[in-house]
Write a structure and sequence with these properties.
Elements lengths: L14 H14 L5 E2 L11 H12 L12 H15 L8 E4 L2 H12 L5 E6 L4 H8 L3 E6 L10 H7 L4 E7 L11 H12 L5 E5 L15 H4 L7 E6 L12 E4 L2 H12 L7 H12 L4 H21 L14 E2 L20 H12 L1 E2 L1 E2 L9 E4 L4 H16 L3
Parallel strand pairs: 1-10, 3-4, 3-5, 5-6, 6-7
Antiparallel strand pairs: 2-8, 7-8, 9-12, 11-12
């Protein structure tokens, strides 16, 4: 009899974290490594946010808080949803957790029963299916294609829904593809959901403020107000505000669901870091002008990476509407061999050999549910991206 829980056999460690850890390990051993695996901006947290955290510490705001967030932060979140998304919530409809991942996990743990299904569009963020499995549910993968720029169609969503479906997890702009759904595309999906009143919607809007080329962001309950009572709108400060390590995520939804999530959190982590909560208040209430300047840099980096990777024979690289990822296909490279005779049978072998031979760390597409691809995070310097793409180009030219 094994000591460990049988539940662990249903899940795997996060591949993105594993790639980042491997890159750090090689770099610490003296190897020349460029890590493009982590979904983390290289910008520092804005000074006004850091100053707010320092003021909170100086004021002695270092004690326990309410389990799912201080009232000041919940009020700031309500103001954000009204300002940015035309959604009206009250503080008792808001939950604050230790990062966006905990918010999603709490919601699943609070609602899933054996046999319940969750529709997830592939390519997907690596943690969605495993969180569903940990919560005792069954992930149902609806695979989008390159022909729709990796966005799920209404017909695909309709086909994936069954009487057992409890949630549809929606992510736009997408991790890993950066694809964003415009108003019309999202309306087609919400029309499907309106025909299935037993299906709830869990949005992951973490990349909301990372949209480019005048692309306009929308969230499901904003497009279809009748979905308001069965939508959990999730977000956080990690990406746009360069606060990944501060670990603050939040969501708003029906009071009963928020109360159930609070119960889960009360018996797991309790409140998020107090200082981080006060920093998040400033992030949401304070100046937002830096977002425009940061996005200009992200657009430049996106264009650099797309241009350099698109120049590789056998590789195609769509232009994403948001986030800070590209998701190139290596369909034209499958079956080729490296100089040492290794056959590129799949994207995992491609990513492994790329790291071993060139020191460039990327995440293989199978981790996101769609191959043959790999994900590049361009949330790093122009110099590092240029050098990394040159190495990828050189590596690909050696394949025969």
């Amino acid at each position: 009899m094994t000591f460990l829980s049988a539940t662990l056999s249903r899940v795997k460690p996060s591949p993105t974290i594993a790639v980042t850890a491997k890159a750090q390990e090689l770099k610490a051993a003296g190897h020349d490594v460029i890590g493009l695996g982590a979904g983390e901006p290289d910008f520092d947290t804005p000074q006004n946010i850091k100053d707010a955290a320092a003021r909170a510490m100086d004021a002695g705001k270092t004690k326990y808080t309410a389990v799912d967030g201080i009232i000041e932060l919940k009020q700031a979140i309500c103001a954000k949803f009204l300002r940015d998304n035309e959604l009206s919530y009250t503080p008792d409809q808001v939950s604050v957790g230790t990062g966006g991942k905990q918010i999603l996990y709490n919601a699943l743990m609070a609602t899933m029963n054996p046999g319940d299904e969750v529709v997830i569009a592939a390519p997907y963020w690596v943690s969605y299916p495993d969180m569903v499995l940990l919560a005792g549910g069954t992930p149902v993968i609806a695979t989008a294609s390159s022909q729709t720029n990796y966005k799920l169609t209404a017909d695909q969503l309709e086909a994936a829904i069954t009487p057992k479906t409890k949630w549809f997890i929606f992510n736009s702009p997408s991790n890993p593809t950066g694809a964003g759904y415009n108003r019309e595309e999202l309306k087609e999906l919400t029309d499907v959901l309106m025909r299935h009143p037993h299906v709830w919607v869990m949005t992951d809007d973490m990349y909301e403020h990372l949209m480019y080329d005048d692309f306009e962001f929308f969230t499901p309950a904003q497009i279809e107000p009748r979905l308001y009572e069965r939508t959990l709108t999730c977000n956080g400060v990690s990406k746009a505000y360069a606060m990944t390590g501060w670990r603050i995520g939040y969501a708003a939804g029906p009071k009963e669901l928020i109360g159930a999530m609070r119960k889960i959190q009360s018996q797991s982590t309790s409140n998020p870091c107090t200082i981080s909560q006060w920093a998040a208040v400033e992030a949401l209430n304070g100046p937002q002008d830096f977002l425009v300047e940061n996005n200009k840099m992200f657009v430049r980096r996106r264009n650099l990476v797309v241009e350099m990777l698109s120049a590789i024979e056998g590789m195609t690289c769509p232009v994403p509407e948001g986030a800070f990822y590209v998701y190139p296909s290596i369909g034209g490279l499958i079956g080729k061999s490296t100089p040492d005779g290794t056959v590129i049978e799949n994207d995992e072998i491609f990513a492994t050999k790329l790291l071993e031979d060139t020191g460039v760390a990327v995440v293989f597409g199978a981790a996101f549910g769609l191959s043959p691809n790999f994900r590049v995070s361009y949330a790093t310097s122009d110099e590092a991206l240029t050098q990394a793409c040159k190495r990828i180009q050189t590596f690909c030219t050696t394949l025969t």
